[in-house]
Amino acid sequence: MLNSDQIVYLNGEFVALADARISVLDRGFIYGDGVYEVIPIYARTPFRMPQHLKRLRYSLDGIRLANPYTEEEWDALICELAAKQPFDDQALYLQITRGVAKRDHAFPQGVAPTVFMMSNPLPLPSREQVDKGVAVVTADDNRWQRCDLKTTSLLGNVLMRQLAVDGGAVETVMFRDGFLTEASSSNVLIVKGGKVIAPPKDNLILPGITYDATLEVARDAGVPLDVRKVTRAEAFAADEMWLSSSTKEVLAITRIDGAPFGAGTPGPVFRRVWQAFQASKPKVVAETF
Ligand SMILES: Cc1ncc(COP(=O)(O)O)c(C=O)c1O
């Protein structure tokens, strides 16, 4: 349900969602010519804000769009928007597009970018999803070669995610040329012989902030790590497989393509790392489960 009274940010102003308007010629609408971020906010405290702002800068550089604000300005605007919401745990979405111009593929000159932000309740996984794990389907990764940029052009990911929904699953785990990449809106990690193995942060996956957070808490908990390419055969033969993202945190995969995976329940390494992850984040005021 849309809450049209919700306060959002658009081009320098805080306005009600119902009053936030952009031109149909915005290049975000016409070309998907923009980048975005999703920042989890726990108990009104943004989680890993500097890392999110660094990735935002990387995405902007990758599409050759100037950053409209300094890090301090972003920080202040994000905190101001979060403070205007009536809930404590939030998923703050921000997007920057190349602005409004006559339709032409080439970059327009002298056009101001469009900056939009909104913040919604943080949709954390249910207790059942944490305890029992989740189902995924698999597919060949047919997206472009710059999956490291968090661009608003998400049609490849949208189609992949719908495959999961069609298959009664939460995510689609993808393989490119026989190697594990990521899922439609999450990173994927495996566990074999007690070791966490994660695909490298190259151009084929989004450098997930939760991926880094998960590896950090795993390392601090004494779990051995290996960052390297993972074949499809290795993934299917893994002891555990996890999803990570800002809204899923870390979740165990217990069904793949309609069949039980691994032991069919979240494994011991997952349980250890999930606990450590929970301990690492700002305290959640209102549990969603
Ligand atoms: C394709 C893709 N991979 C990975 C992630 C996880 O990134 P993060 O942990 O920063 O949320 C996302 C998040 O939305 C995503 O869309």
Q: What kind of sheet is the major sheet?
A: 9 strands, mixed
The helix fraction, in percent, is 25-40%
Beginning-to-end CA distance, first to last residue = 20 Å
Q: What's the total number of strands?
A: 15
Overall mean confidence score, pLDDT: 96
Contiguous low-pLDDT stretches (5 residues minimum) are none
The chain-level structural class is alpha+beta
What ligands are attached or bound here?
Answer: pyridoxal-5'-phosphate
* Estimated radius of gyration: 19 Å
Estimate the strand proportion. 25-35%
Q: Which of globular, elongated, flat, extended, rod-shaped describes the shape?
A: globular
The helix/strand series, from N terminus to C terminus, equals EEHEEHHEEHEHEEEEHEHEEEH
Compute the number of helices.
8
Task: Describe what this molecule looks like in 3D.
The protein is of the alpha+beta class and 289 residues long. Helices cover 28% and strands 28% of the residues. It contains 8 helices and 15 strands. It has helices at residues 27-31, 49-62, 71-83, 127-132, 155-166, 209-220, 232-236, 268-280, and strands at 7-10, 13-16, 34-42, 45-46, 90-97, 114-121, 134-140, 171-176, 179-183, 187-192, 195-198, 225-227, 240-245, 249-256, 259-260. The strands form 2 sheets. Strands 7, 8, 9, 10, 11, 12, 13, 14 and 15 form a 9-stranded mixed sheet that branches. Strands 2-1-6-5-3-4 form a 6-stranded antiparallel sheet. A hairpin with a 2-residue loop joins strand 14 and strand 15 (259-260). Helix 6 crosses helix 8. The radius of gyration is 19 Å and the shape is globular. Pyridoxal-5'-phosphate (PLP) binds at residues 38, 157, 182, 185-187, 206, 208-211, 244-246.
